[in-house]
Amino acid sequence: MAKKEFKAESKRLLEMMINSIYTQREIFLRELISNASDAIDKIYYKALTDDNLVFNKEDYYIKVTADKANRTLTITDTGIGMTQEDLENNLGVIAKSGSLAFKSENEAKDGHNIIGQFGVGFYSAFMVADVVTVTSKALGSDQAFKWESTGTEGYTIEPSEKDSVGTEIVLKIKENTEDDQYDEYLEEYRLRAIIKKYSDFIRYPIKMDIKSQRPKEGTENEFEEYQEEQTINSMVPIWRKNKDELTEEDYNNFYAEKRYGFDKPLKHIHIKADGAVVYNAILFIPENTPFDYYTKEYEKGLELYSNGVLIMDKCGDLLPDYFSFVKGMVDSEDLSLNISREMLQHDRQLTLIAKNIKNKIKSQLQSLLKDEREKYEQFYNSFGRQLKFGVYNDYGTHKDVLQDLLMFYSSTEKKLVTLDEYVSRMPEDQKYIYYASGESIERIEKLPQTELVADKGYEILYFTDDVDEFAIKMLMTYKEKEFKSVSSGDLGIEPNADEKPSEAEEGENKELFESMSSILGGKVKSVRASKRLKSHPVCLTAEGDLTIEMEKILKAMPNGQDIKADKVLEININHEVFKSLKDAHQGDQEKLALYTNLLYNQALLIEGLTIADPVEFTNDICKIMV
Fold first, then answer.
1. How many CB atoms lie within 10 A of CB 9?
2. Contact present, 434 and 458 (Cβ < 8 Å)
């Protein structure tokens, strides 16, 4: 029995693959089980064209057996088996797969598609084994052969004995080291967990001898241990069943079994696509926000399967960031996978699936908004911030996708409303979509700046999320209507004729306001008569694109950007306070300075801004009390 060397390039590839390609050692079992499933599929294909061969599905299975005493793990299948030439070609040349060649010759017509198109998958066994022994007897052959290898040093092939058709792979599991515990691949519970994780939906039974306990015959409190052969995998995935076979409870149970969340999903989306790309998917819109959702630790993505075999726990490429809350899985036979199942090619199929999924999610959310408003509002309270961030992110690239899904609290409706609902109610004379920003609905309702807009009967949207204004700035318009903050310099609302000051009054006021502006020494861009105030004496507004609320948010960020809005101090000339200002301006400049600083600090407090010198502010209050 002569030992054969791997070719030089194959040897280098094997070394690289064992040490770096696979990110988790446990996937060796996935690869070997997938190959075993392929071997059974090949008999199924042959039975389609060979009248002498009857395929009775009950006769075909895969068995996994652990022997702790001898440190061996055995994977046995009742598949088509391999001849000496097959062993040489498929296991002697790395990155060549018999399944791939077989598939090209026998294209499936009924969904039984071979999954083992990955020539190096078998060699993942060397990540956990010192020696790999493959004994195989091919269909129609009387002679079995044994292939054996210790890894990169080469392999041997010799005649062997085997009673039945199929393949038996025996792994001599490595000894433990300080860093690695290889014993786990001999533990029943660990093997079951790996099979359930990656191979639960292989279409043939995966069996194991499971240890159990039962009452000892003739005793009451004594138990005896026994072994019972059990099928570990469920075989038929939920996504391959017809939708009319499934109930809401079935989907909820699947959500819980896959540990997508501890809540119940608000809605599920079951997709069976047979167009340019063929795939099945089940997606869930969760009810609650995961505890780490708005942290860097949160990882988006859908589970990705290839013909029922788990390829990736979280394939981020299948979801846009703004829909990162969606949970679920995708199963496709069309994806191009390179070297190992873990290396997914960014190809046209993946792009098509991702685009279709994005459209399905949007369509479901729109349907939820239209037909199940209460559920949509529940979803929006959990994930609306992410949609708004999606509008703002990537320079507004996705705003057209998301704008109809946005909601904001309405001053008139006293509930969340969409932009479309707001615009549909706008009076003909209303130029802008008005909004007010603040930390809470209660605080916004008390803002002096809202008085004029509210007095005109115009609806105001309340922005309470830090991302709201940034998203709206990126959106710019909705149905050709511009957004306008109630704190903007020009509200597009003209005061009534009887409210306008005379030219003489404007002249007198100009000198007063210039004096006040001088007293404030650059803290505001200007002081002027307010067109928006009704009952309040003073407020701050902003000129330019940066609002006062945006200034506060930017300052609160970790990098603490020192960016300031161009503030304007507006005075209500119809308020009693204004008479005191005029009197002070005519005869007591010290008192004017006192009043000016008090009003400015009051305006800061109303906006939730920090007063530069609280002690001075309290002293000023005391001065007017004595």
1. 11
2. yes
Structure token pair of residue 335? 């994806």
Q: Which of 221, 357, 367 is nearest to 279 (CA)?
A: 357
Nearest by Cα to 128 from 243, 51, 28: 28
CA distance linking residue 384 with residue 475, whole number of Å: 16
Longest CA span, the chain: 120
- Which run of H or E residues covers position 620? helix 614-625
What's the confidence (pLDDT) of residue 283? 97
Distance CA 349, CA 272 (A): 15
Between the CA of residue 294 and those of 289, 299, 384, what are the distances in Å? 9, 10, 12
- Strand (E) positions, 477-545? 477-478, 481-485, 526-529, 538-543
pLDDT of residue 309: 84
Which element (helix H / strand E) includes 192?
helix 188-199
Strand partners, 328: 283
CB atoms under 10 Å from CB of 410, counted, come to 18
Q: What is the pLDDT of residue 259?
A: 86
Contact in structure between 532 and 539 (CB atoms under 8 Å): yes
Low-confidence ranges of the chain (pLDDT < 50): 95-100, 102, 108-119, 339-340
Q: Quote the CA–CA distance of 466 and 473 in Å, as a whole number.
A: 13
C-alpha distances in Å from residue 189, one per residue of 127, 177, 193, 232, 527? 20, 21, 6, 11, 75
- What is the value of pTM for the model shown? 0.78
Q: How far apart are CA 33 and CA 309, in angstroms?
A: 10
Q: What pLDDT score does 7 carry? A: 63
Structure tokens at 52: 């002498």
pLDDT of residue 117: 39
What is the pLDDT, as a whole number, of residue 164? 95
Taking alpha carbons only, the member of 295, 309, 293 closest to residue 261 is 293
